[in-house]
Structures are given as C-alpha cells and as structure tokens.
C-alpha cells in the first residue's frame, strides 16, 4: 500500500509561483513513474508533468516552460512559475508501483487570481 500526500497549494496572483510537494510513504525511486495531474471545474483530469524511474520528464503542452517536476527520496515536487488563471485547479499526485497498479493523493487546490 502506498500513501501520497500533497501540500503547497494555495492562492497566488497571476505571474506568481508555487511549489507543490507530494510526500510518499516509500522511496520514490521504487515507483515506475510519478506524475502530477490537475482537474479544473467542468474539465477532465489532465497530465501536468511526469517523471519516470530513469529520471526522464514529460510536460503537458500548456505548462511546458513554466513548470518543473523533480523528486528526492521520499517527495516529488512541482515548481510552478508564471502561474495564470487557467492553472486554477485541484492538483493530484500519482504514482505507479507497476504498470498495472497506481495510487493517487487527495489533491491540493491551486487558485490563481488577481
């Protein structure tokens, strides 16, 4: 069993920055992949960024160049810069322990507004 706990969300003005954290109950190195997803009201959950076990990272087109994903032994991070109102959403931590088993955190809310 894996537990994932997000933190770092909050309110920020356009152009501002936030760093989200996802604390895992075991080493992030043991995961096949970890990712950040987000879901805005009325929209489908979408991939924000992914980091694979080999360290390779991928980003959704709308956040590329503004967001950066990273991890240490027990925590995955999402550095979010130049935040825009359209980034407002609930952000979720995801981890695959295999290609057929995955876990989700409860989410952390990010609101970007002036």
What does this entry look like structurally?
It is a single chain. This protein has 114 residues and is mainly beta. It contains no helices and eleven strands. The chain has strands at 4-7, 10-12, 18-24, 33-39, 46-52, 57-59, 67-71, 75-80, 89-96, 102-104, 108-112. The relative contact order is 0.32. The mean pLDDT is 96.
Helix/strand order: EEEEEEEEEEE
Which word captures the global form? globular
Overall mean pLDDT: 96
Instruction: Give the low-confidence spans.
Output: none
Distance between the termini: 40 Å
Proportion of strand residues:
over 45%
Number of strands: 11
Biggest sheet layout: 7 strands, mixed
Short description:
The chain has strands at 4-7, 10-12, 18-24, 33-39, 46-52, 57-59, 67-71, 75-80, 89-96, 102-104, 108-112. With 114 residues, it is an all-beta fold. Strand 5 (46-52) and strand 6 form a beta hairpin.
């Amino acid at each position: 069993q894996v537990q994932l706990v997000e933190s770092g969300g909050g309110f920020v003005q356009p152009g501002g920055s936030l760093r989200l954290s996802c604390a895992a109950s075991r080493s992030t190195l043991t995961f096949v992949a970890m990712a950040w997803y987000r879901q805005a009201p009325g929209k489908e959950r979408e991939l924000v960024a992914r980091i694979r076990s080999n360290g390779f990272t991928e980003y959704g087109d709308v956040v590329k160049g503004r967001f950066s994903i990273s991890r240490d032994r027990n925590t995955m991070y999402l550095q979010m810069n130049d935040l825009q109102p359209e980034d407002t959403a609930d952000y979720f931590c995801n981890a695959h322990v295999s290609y057929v088993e995955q876990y989700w955190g409860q989410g952390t809310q990010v609101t970007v507004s002036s």
